[in-house]
Design a protein that fits this description.
Shape: elongated
Strand content: 25-35%
Number of helices: 8
Number of strands: 11
CATH class of the largest domain: Alpha Beta
CATH topology of the largest domain: Rossmann fold
Number of domains: 2
Order of helices and strands: EHEEEHEHEHEEHEHEHEH
CATH architecture of the largest domain: 3-Layer(aba) Sandwich
Low-confidence stretches: none
Distance between the termini: 5 Å
Structural class: alpha/beta
Oligomer: single chain
Radius of gyration: 19 Å
Helix content: 25-40%
């Protein structure tokens, strides 16, 4: 028996993960827990900064025409997917981190990029810029929604659940408790240790991907889905 794979991330990213999952022969179920949408924003002058930080492709997708004034700045991105989207939009990628915004800031040479503008989501983790100036401007939001019927139906039997963020993990747990859906027969595959911690206890199993990317996440999920 092959277990279904439940993908809960916002739709655009979920469809990318679904394509990869189906390429691995997995039975993927997409039912986002969040809707990503633009917000009204205004940013400081580009000339006040010597680099732009992008930790999600959503900033490019939903930032709007106001992004154009920042295209002369070198861009620091987290993840290859964000880098590709930014480059396709006309930004110049100077540095790409593998795991998180904090890891990317930590790996920068001390005397480079002293003043950085971060175009972020409304909900974002705090970063320690050290001696650098880091200004944060939210340009999009991820709005949490109720757990959908597809998810509820999927969770009637043993399922492998992909969790890409700590916020998604916490929201899923809240929704399961609200609907009195037990966790004990389901497996969680978490993007990082932070995400696994947010998912809490009580699952049949909870495992963390070797690296914070879809390739590692799906490699682990494939072993779980096809182990029965």
């Amino acid at each position: 028996m092959t277990l279904p794979l439940l993908i809960l991330r916002p739709l655009e990213g979920a469809l990318q993960t679904e394509r990869r999952a189906k390429g691995l022969g997995l039975q993927a179920v997409v039912d986002p827990l969040f809707i990503v949408e633009p917000i009204i924003w205004s940013g400081p002058a580009a000339g006040d900064f010597d680099a732009l930080l992008l930790t999600s492709a959503n900033a490019v997708t939903y930032g709007g025409d106001q992004l154009d004034v920042y295209k002369p700045l070198p861009v620091l991105t987290v993840g290859q997917a964000t880098a590709r989207v930014a480059e396709n939009a006309g930004f110049h990628i100077a540095e790409t981190g593998d795991s998180s915004g904090q890891q990317l800031l930590n790996q920068l040479e001390t005397d480079r990029y002293r003043s950085i503008l971060w175009l972020a989501g409304e909900q974002h983790s705090l970063l320690d810029p050290g001696e650098r100036q880091l200004d944060i401007v939210p340009v999009y939001r991820s709005r949490a929604i109720a757990l959908g019927q597809k998810t509820a139906a999927c969770l009637e039997a043993e399922t492998v659940i992909l969790l890409h963020s700590a916020r998604a993990a916490k929201h899923l747990v809240t929704e399961l408790d609200r609907l009195h859906i037990m966790r004990g027969q389901h497996h969680v595959v978490a993007f990082s240790a932070k995400v696994a911690a947010a998912a809490g206890q009580g699952w049949k199993s909870i495992q963390v991907a070797d690296h914070p990317d879809d390739e590692s996440l799906l490699s682990l999920a494939t072993r779980l889905c096809q182990s029965e």
